Structure formats: structure tokens, C-alpha cells
Queue: 3 jobs
Job 1
Amino acid sequence: MQRSVKYSSHARTQLLEIHTRITRDNPEAAVRVAKLVTDSVDGLLDFPMLGKAWLKVGTRKLVISKYPYSIIYKLTPEAVLVLAIDHHSLR
């Protein structure tokens, strides 16, 4: 069975806030950052163990090295569930 990507409402809100915040200064950069985040999440479909084990049992953290963000996610048999998109200064 092929997994799909699902975003929690919290992660969707965070992605929108990131995009909105960056857009104030540089709309083109906002699009690039949001695209890299979503592309990184999509890449987890092919390489779900790419992130390292994280704080809560069953969660993983994928660091986006180009920008100061990390994707916190959980694997289920059906999906890569994105729980949060955190700025590095928050962790």
C-alpha cells in the first residue's frame, strides 16, 4: 500500500504562518521556502526514515538544512503525518 501525506491542522497553520511572515519582506523567498518544506515532506514518501527519532515515541524530525526549519512527523501504515513545522529557534 502506498502512503500519502497528511498535515495536522497545527502543521498547516504553521506553514501558512511561515509563508505569511516571509512574504512581508520577500514574496519570492516565501514561495521558495514553502515549496522546499512541502517537497521535503513529499520526499518522505520515498524515504520515510530519513528523519531521526524525535522526542515523543514514534515521532521523527527531518531538519531542512537550507532554511531554519524542521518537520516533525509520524509514520502510520497509511500516511506520513506531519505534526509540526518548527523554526530552529523554537527548539
Job 2
Amino acid sequence: MQPSTIASRRFAAYAWGVLALNLAVVLGGALVRATGSGAGCGNNWPRCNGQVIPTSPTVHTLIEFTHRAMTGADVPIVALLVFWAFRAFPKRHPARAAAVLSALFLVTEALIGAGLVVFDQVAQNASPSRAWWLSGHFLNTLTLLALPALAAWWGAGHPPPRFRGRPAVTAAGSLAALAFLGISGVIAALGDTLYPSVSLGAGLAQDFSATANFWVRLRLFHPMIAAGVGIWLVYYALSGMARRPELRPPALALLAVVVVQVAAGAINLVLLAPVWMQILHLLLADLVWIALVILCAEALSLPPELPVDGAVQPAGSPIRARAGATGGSFGPGSKGAPAPRG
């Protein structure tokens, strides 16, 4: 039995709230990294310096402990999302799956965070292994943000995607490209934290120096990757919107946050990455990710289109029924799609 429209909207509103809390937790983690507070509770987890609640804490301890407390508060809230999804939706409903996976990836997020502390991959640790830890942590974070957004989207009544053909490949490639850009951004941000520059010129000199630490040299690639991925995302949104008017709202949302993020990235570079700007830059990056996830989900849920006499016709139209052809789909460079949904 499908829930009523009001019940669906209430669930969706709660899922968006869960996403907002997850965003706050993610930004809190970025503050821990940017301020070098990862060792604020020592190498103890879940206790903080051997205590449940730290006494006489330093600023670094307060930052780290607050982040841990926010993560703990997220647990019952996500648990309620799972319970609500199972109460509100029938078996095999995608909102159920998204809610359950939200809980699973919250657990892995906490475990990776614990591993960072226990294995001393925090504070001023500049070893290459930290890049792998941070990359895994960031990919888990992206998934943790995508899942409640999808739970809200599908819970509100939007149909689930169908993973087939060129549209699925294009969507997956777009998400992978943005994830890769995010990983490069995390590495660049840590390089800025570990090896701050006194001026833009000095920072560029460091980036091109053959003797610079690998963290410094890696941050040079982030703006280049950002330019390429940004151009692709603009093309992906515009081409999808041109072919399918239904995609206009999520496509416009993606375009808006991409433009703002590019401007923020330039400002972050000129200002030499102050902590507040790093947090804002990450927030915008997360919003770009969420907007892309929703756009891909909507694009993959639409019925395929068919070219008929040089014109693209939506699936199920009288022209298409008479044509009896197969092909057409959403996606840059798309030329064909499978038969329509049953």
C-alpha cells in the first residue's frame, strides 16, 4: 500500500532534515581537519583522552569532541529514518533501501573516523598513507550525503531510476568525475593546512618546486581537475535540460551551485585558504554533489525518447506507437535507448 501524499511529504521533509544534519557533521569534520584538531582527544576512541566527557579541554579537544558528539546524535535520527521508511512504504520501495544504506554508511563513517584517530592519521601527520585514509573517508561521506537525499526524493513520490543504456553510463561517469574532483580537493585542502603559504606567489612557487613535499605538489592539480569537471557538469545539465524539459529544475539547481562553487574556489585560492573559506568551499562542493545526484536520479527515471522523422518524441506518444522503433535517451551525445517501460 502506497502512503498518502501528506505522509510522503512528511517523510521527505524528515529525510531532508537528516541530510542537513549529515552536512553539519561533515562540515564539523572539515573543521577538525582544518584546525589540526584531529588529535584533540588523543588516540582514544570513543573516549576522549580517556574520559567520557573531557574536563578542562583545550580548544582542539572541544572541536574534536563536539564533532564526535554530533556524529553520535546522528545515530538515533538516522535510525528513526529507517523505522519510518519501513512503516510508510511497501516492500522493495527505493526509499526503504536508501534509508537502510544511510544507516550502514553512518556506521562506516564513524569507523573510518575512529581509524583515523587510532592509527594517528590526523593533526600534522603528512605521510602518504593519510591520502588513502582521507580518500576513503571522503567517498564514504559522499555516499552518506547521497542516500538521505535519495530517500527524500523517492519518498516524495519520484520514480526510481532504471540503470540501462547510455544514460546510466553518462550519469555514472558524471558522479565518478565529481567524486574524483572532491578527492583532489580534500588532498589540496590538507596540503594548505600542513604547508600554508605566506602569499599567492609563494604558494605557486611551492607548487612548482621539484623539492616540495608531495602534499604541496598534489594541490597544483586540483584547479585543473576542477576546470575540466566544471565544464562537463555545465554541459551535462544544459544538454539534459534541452532534451527533456522535466529536467529543468534539478539542472538549473546544479548550474547555480557550480557557478557559485567556481567563484568560491577562486576566492579560496586568492585568500590562501583560510579556515572559514575551506568550510564554505566544502559546503558548496557537497551541494554540487547533492544536486548532481538528484539530477541523475531524475534523468534515469524518465521514459526513453525516440527519434521519429528527425524529431525526438517522448515514449508512449502516438507517433512513437505508430513508428514501432527503438532508441533515444537522455544524455550528452545520446543516440538511442531501449524500449519504453512496461
Job 3
Amino acid sequence: MRHRPTGDLQYVQQMNRRLVLDTLLNHGPMSKIEISRQTTLSPTTVGNAIIELQSENLVQEVGKVVSPMGRRPMLLDIQWDSRSVIGLSIVDNKVLGVRTNIAAEIKKISEKKFELSDDIRSVLQSVISELMDGHDESTVIGVGLATPGILNRSEGEIVNIANFPWKSLKFTGDIMNNHKIPTFIENDTNAAAIGEAYFGRGRGVNSFCYVHVGTGVGAGIIVDRHILLGSRGYAGEIGHMPVELNGKKCRCGSIGCLEAYVSWHEVISLLKDHLPKELSEDDFETIVDRASYLNSIYQKGDVAEILEQVSEILAVGIASLISTTDPSIIILEGIFDQCDEFMRALQKNINRRLINFPHDKPLVLTGELREFAAVAGIVAIILEKNGFLRSSESLLETNYHFDIQEGQQ
């Protein structure tokens, strides 16, 4: 016989509470009698669940039903600001963090640049502290980190990041050791794909690939509204897809990797004769808006041939991804997303490599959330794990609006 984790009565009460909360998430504001009709629970059972949810500040009264006659029942709704989520992401050379409520509305933003020699633990702790400042820690339902690299999700550990010096870094133990809050980690491109699926360009798109080109190259793959992780969680590591048999040595130690030809460091190396002489290699590490900087170089008009070659190699990787996953669109973010000429050249080169593709070629588009995509995704993951996404949206489809203008200070 299958055993429930608690006694039958307690289990039933928990299920009733969950059903009432889900009903308000999906259909609120509602009166108690409407909840009773929707759930088929008795009015007494609904009343008891509401009392419990109100005691936890999860449900509140929001007014009375407009009616020309008779007693007007009280309307109930979720108290959206009663709980918070903190999402963090490592975006090239900075940590970006947000604190949202359970409707994914941003309440505060924090970001800090770092250098490779910095202790990333201190940088992350600083961003978390700033987001938590003056806020009740007990109301935070989760803190999540979107990061590049190979992850051990069950242990909350960053095992290795090819382009950074950090290894065996445990988010829960090394960074969150002073906070008793549930923690989550996810690969940055997977999180960004989820962010775009919930709140951005991927809304309503059944299958798409999110590709980020920056310090490294990675992809998040959405198939039938589900994120593709693979058997070990490493799906989407296209930066280390071989594109040349006996090619350049990659910083990962292998040769001929896509990343060795199209990443930020490689592109800057190719353009070195067209860059200001006074800038050192270290100076390029500190550029925050790399896409804008690269676009300004592109506009000078004497680097088009070099970047055309880069687009041809990137097209090889993306065309292979398209042939494997058959997405509706490709969302490309990173150092090239402001270069319109590059994007057109990339689309042309991808189409040329998909001549046997039976239907329209997938369009290469920029995302809507830009650098906020990964933190939006980690926020969505935490909300879903805690049951604060509407049931009709739990396959990564939502009407919530992740507004990147709100809460900025």
C-alpha cells in the first residue's frame, strides 16, 4: 500500500488548502461561495482553508461583489506582496540581481561588476545583501542563481565554468550559509530560455532555441514548451560543439570549438588592428555593454569582412542546432544583438546551410528581456516550484509581465 507522508486528515487539509490557493491563482478575485462552487468543496471547508491562508498573509479581502440587491459577498485574492523571490545571474562580467513579489513584479534591482581575480562569493553575497536590505527574510520563498558552467543541481554546486577560475563552488553552503532560505541554481542559457518563454519573445512559441554569445557560447532549448536538459543536464553546450576538425585550441582544452571562433575574446582578437591602441586586453574585460561597443566598431565600416567570417562560423553552429531541434525561431542575445548588419548576414548564412530544410527557415530574432532574461527565468522556476504560477501556465506559458523598469533605484 502507498503511504502518504502525513496522517490522512492533515493530508486532506493540505490538499484542500492547495486547491483553494490554486483556484484563487487561476480565477481570483472570488468570493468564498464562488470558490466552493469552483472546487466542489463545502463552504465550511473553504472557510477553514481561507482562515489558514489569511493567517499566513497569503490571501486578503479586496472588496465586495457589486450587486444591486441582497447581501454582497466579500471578494478574496492572493496577497501578491506577501512573499518574495530573489533571482541572480552572472552576465559576462557582472552579477545582476532582482527581488520580485509572487506576481513576478520587480521590487528592487542590484548589479555589481567583477573581475576574474575577485572572490565571486563576496560579489554574490553583496548583491543578495543589498536586495535583502530592510526586507523580512522569512517572506523570501527562494533565492536562485543562473550561471554558466557545469552544475550539480541536486547539490546546488557550480562544478566548473570553462571561462572563469571558479570550481566546486556551492551556492547553498559557500554563499547562502547565513540565510535559511531555499536555494536553486540553473544554467544561465536554460534560465534565459525559460525567462523568454514566460515573459519575452518566446511567449506562445511552442519550440525555440535561445543562443547567447558572450564570454562563452551556450543555448537553452525549449521543445514543446519544456526545457531540454538531457540525461546529465548538459544539453545546449553548443559553445563546445566542434566546427573545425583541426582548428583553434579552445579555452576548455579541446580544439575546433565554436566558442574559439565567435566568443567576445576571439572577436576582439580578430579586430585588434581596428581597436583603440590605448586599450589593453584587460580593458576589454571591463566593458559592460559589449553589444553596443561592438556595434560602434561595426559602424565604422572597415570590419564587415572580418565579422562576415565570424557570422559564417556561428551559422554552422546554429544551423546544426536547428537541424537537431527544429525550432520555430532562434533568439540570439549577447555581443551581436545590436549589429543589424551582422544579424542579416547570420540569417543569410544559416539559410544557405539549411537548403534542404523542407519549410520556412527559422528566423533569428533578438530577445525582449536582454540581460534580464536569465534572472526572469530563475524567478519563474522558483515561483513554479512553490506553486505560485497558474496551472494553465505551468508549461512555461504566462500572462505575468516581468517589467524591467519597475523597482529600479
